[in-house]
Amino acid sequence: MRLFRAATAASAFLALAGTACAADLIVSEPVVDTGGIDWTGFYAGINAGYGASDATSVIGPINPSGPIAGVQAGYNYDFGKFVVGVEGDLQWSGVKGSHAAAISTATASLDYFGTVRLRGGLPVEGRTLPYITAGVSFGQVSATSTFGGGFASTQQAVGLAAGIGTEFALTDNLTLKAEYLYVDFGDVTFFPGTIIEEKVRSRMGAARVGLNLKF
To answer: What range does the domain containing 12 cover?
Structure first.
């Protein structure tokens, strides 16, 4: 009888101990990392891509196109379910084109441009940020014509910019982005005060990829 009571007591003690250990394991179970990052903070980076325009002169289509490259910097604030920020960039441009006609040859180029834009996006699965962006643009556009011995014109332009993109966090501090940007400088007057003065609609679509380092 004493052996039976002792065995019963031992079994009860082991059962209680097992329950306590199980409860302790449940309480101390580590939190699973979902892989999300906090997008809040300053960042800076580089980008490269390609731009194309449908500019047309009085003698025919010029359609400038070519590579672009530049730098960008900005700041994001992560509200949890959405991210807002501001970004500025400055771009070197190899976007240029020409058209030859019987009376003359015309060329047009975008020498450089930049934008200052607001951005807003919704994080997906923690590390991906699709976004929209819009703001102002500025740049320098140039044109030449061989008509009447030759003319050249360089103008500063200000307009609007808008686009869409996706940014992906490779690490907590390094991100990769792909972006399409539409830049519209409106009507730019080339060769002002001459017999070939002309207003040309200056606009461009640009696709680019970039890397950002978050501080």
So the answer is: 1-30
